[in-house]
Amino acid sequence: MMLDLKALLGQGNAPLVGVDISTSCVRLVELAQNGKEGLRLERYAAELLPRGAVVDGNIENMDQVVDAVRRVWKKSGSRARLAALGMPPASVITKKIILPAGMSEDQLEVQVESEASQYIPFALDEVSLDFDVIGPAASSPEDIEVMLAASRREKVEDRVAIAEASGLKASVMDIESYAARAALVRVADLAKGGAGQVLALFQIGAQVTHISILLDGATIYEREQAFGGNNLTQDIVRAYGMAFDEAEARKKSGELPDNYASELLQPFLESAALEVTRAIQFFFTSTPYTRVDQLFLAGGCALIPGLAELVAGRSKIATSVAAPFAGMALGPAVRENQLRAEAAAYLVACGLALRRFG
Asked: Fewest C-beta in 10 Å: which of 133, 164, 305, 329?
């Protein structure tokens, strides 16, 4: 089955929301054109997910996720019905392949399916498949380079069903790491510091940290590490005898005993900084690259005060918290102070919302 995103994308610049379904939260972003080249953040909102509703990127409780998507859409005040959703990187197989140039769309589709069967460990009828022509192949001008993306069909259909049950229509399906990259590259381009620079992005989620390293907007290295904000929540559970949900709520509100900052939070930040520096060292030893020019932190944990400074000190790399809405105008519904405190958690949702503009 070909997942025909090109047909789905034939909507022009129709209003669209980016909906990021993570392990712990559903986040929504709606962007609009602002003048000829500018963008405006119209709306954004978040809704927590019950523990266990999404595990390792798999939808375990459809009703709970639908409820959260419905509530976040209502809370945002958006009227857009089209949605761009993300797939976890671990659930999508991507592969660059070389094919002869000059084929029609239909011929290309047949050829891609034929090539896909070599790389995908499932029967093709169990798979949703898409491809994108990158351009002429560097090694041979008569050929083209094509990016192939495939996922188990039920994983795609779960997200499509969630959108529909929430009153939305899934018009774009992207890979979460690609969406995050699109949002980060836009910010790097604004800063005029992207050309020739090696940028490292660490998205620290609830359970997993996803690492993407980019050169001139292209991913040169990707990896996941089993480390996230739940480590700190579990520490709170053990130290104070709380239920997980209460520990998570108090972690966010800061309503914890006086010794929390020194005995739990600081060691967690030290561990996070150590994870980042180890990952950078692993990148250096396993690739030809020997430098990272800028390091960006995203995800819920990136919002913890002091983490960026600690990572910068340990790694000796200029480090900042990702600001996906930098350079955008703000719609009347957006509160600037609140946005500044939360923006880094919306990197994926922002990247998904950018799909409205191609």
From this structure: 305
